[in-house]
Design brief:
With 487 residues, this protein is an alpha/beta fold. It is 56% helix and 7% strand. The chain is flat.
Length: 487
């Protein structure tokens, strides 16, 4: 080959190699640019491409904080759970001011008084009492709490009063006299004989239950002391029954001041939602949590409560019951599911928790029945089809035996579903024990247990819904029996 041609070929190869190296260098530069691109920009590009849902968009804020320690998450959980004990009253300012004014005048002047907080359950009565009592200086009064569900008679109540006053309960055994004398002695032990005597605030939760005690001695003596005793006694009653005053005896009612503070459930969904916001927000005064994480956590709540799933869940709960306890329980479940991978409240957890609380307890109970108990429930459903409001074991067992005989006639195995009458009777009694059946009163209540009439506490629709979930675990014969009578 000629020298000039060879030189041209060499120059061509060099030029192609140079072009290839430039292309490779360009690709490397492009790759390095993509690799070195800031994380925030990558998230923005992915968001534009994938168009995540509203709930997923909330979780993207987690990438703005890295290296969240497990101890930091646990500290946040503890702080939020402790805050639940001190949630400020929401939309209860008028009730708070009224109770605060009554207690302020009584404590400062050393006068006895009484007041009744009346309203439905979960309307904030106890919350307002705790909030108002905590607003006073410490050691300015003594608080004695009694509950009608726990202190079912006056003796238990007096023993609890003695212990809460840091006195020895044994002194009650040797004290002579009536209940009134013993109560006066216990309260008189705090009397200094001058205006410096510390007032005593009695918080009676379930005042209507104390009204069922014989002669209402506890209420009579406490209200009488609130008017006449040297030791200032302030009685704060809490009740959810509107007829509480009517249940008091005339002598007890005459000693009550007739000061009543009414409570109501949340009137607007905004105030109902505000309760959840207070439960999930980290207080600014909390210094145990990293300030940057605290700021990001509280900022994420704005998007959390804008989530459609969260808004729909709160709106449904508000429309059905306005139950603050259930709302706070949903917040607790959301708090418990915080972890380093999901350091912010997750709307999906909040919504899933709501579905658990909305499940029918009777349906859940039906799903956990044994095979024989399920057969008896299907037999009960067939009896209910005959417009029988009440029935007995013999009627249900006859339906069950008819099913077993039909299976035997068809030549199919019945060993798994054939039980003796004694075993079936025990299963029938177990249905009564777990609340599926309820004995009726009146005629026949004293006859043998096989013939005692009962009523079903579950409806046919509940049985149908429960069977839809548990039918896949039942024998085919039982499923066919159910389907035959459900057509």
């Amino acid at each position: 080959m000629d020298r000039p041609k060879r030189k041209m070929l060499l120059e061509t190869d060099v030029q192609q190699n140079a072009d290839n190296s430039q292309d490779e260098e360009l690709e490397i530069n492009n790759e390095s640019e993509i690799t070195l691109e800031p994380k925030t920009k990558k998230v923005r590009v992915q968001k534009d491409k994938l168009e995540p849902s509203e709930d997923e968009d909330i979780l993207m804020n987690e990438k703005s904080i890295s290296n969240i320690d497990l101890s930091e998450i646990e500290a946040t959980k503890n702080a939020l759970l402790n805050q639940l004990k001190r949630i400020p009253p929401v939309d209860l300012q008028q009730q708070t001011d009224s109770l605060s004014q009554i207690l302020k005048n009584s404590i400062s002047l050393g006068h006895g008084n009484s007041v009744l907080l009346l309203g439905p359950n979960n309307s904030g009565k106890t919350l307002v009492v705790d909030h108002v009592l905590a607003s006073f200086p410490p050691n300015s009064f003594s608080v004695i709490r009694l509950n009608g569900l726990m202190h079912t008679d006056d003796k238990l109540a007096l023993t609890s009063i003695t212990r809460q006053l840091n006195l020895q309960a044994e002194i009650l055994v040797d004290l002579p006299g009536s209940f009134s004398d013993k109560l006066a002695y216990v309260l008189g032990s705090l009397d200094n004989g001058d205006s410096a005597t510390i007032p005593i605030v009695f918080v009676l939760d379930g005042l209507d239950l104390f009204a069922t005690h014989p002669k209402q001695l506890l209420l009579y003596n406490l209200l009488d002391m609130s008017q006449n005793a040297q030791t200032p006694v302030i009685v704060v009653g809490i009740s959810s029954r509107l007829d509480t005053l009517a249940s008091l005896e005339k002598r007890v009612r005459s000693r009550f001041s007739h000061r009543i503070i009414h409570f109501y459930l949340s009137k607007t969904i905004e105030s109902f939602t505000e309760i959840a916001k207070h439960a999930l927000a980290i207080q600014e005064s909390n210094t145990t949590i990293n300030s940057n994480y605290k700021f990001q956590f509280n900022s994420s709540l704005k998007e959390f409560f804008k989530s459609k799933s969260v808004c729909n869940t709160i709106d449904e709960l508000f429309s059905l019951s306005k139950d603050v306890t259930t709302l706070l329980q949903l917040c607790i479940n959301t708090i418990h599911n915080l972890n380093p991978e999901n350091p912010f409240p997750n709307p999906n957890i909040f919504t899933f928790s709501a579905t658990l609380y909305q499940q029918d307890q009777q349906i859940m109970t039906l799903n956990e029945l044994s095979l024989l108990e399920t057969c008896l429930v299907i037999a009960i459903k067939n009896v209910l089809r005959s417009q029988h409001e009440s029935f007995n074991f013999e009627m249900v067992y006859e339906e069950y035996r008819e099913f077993v005989r039909r299976v035997i006639t068809l030549g199919r195995g019945v060993g798994q579903i054939n039980f003796t009458k004694k075993v079936a009777l025990n299963a029938f009694e177990q249905l009564q024990a777990i609340g599926i059946l309820k004995p009726t009163t009146g005629v026949g209540s004293q006859c043998p247990k096989e013939y005692r009439m009962v009523k079903s506490l579950v409806t046919r629709s509940q049985i149908v819904n429960a069977f839809a979930h548990s039918s896949q675990h039942l024998p085919l014969n039982v499923v066919n029996w159910y389907i035959m009578f459900n057509l």
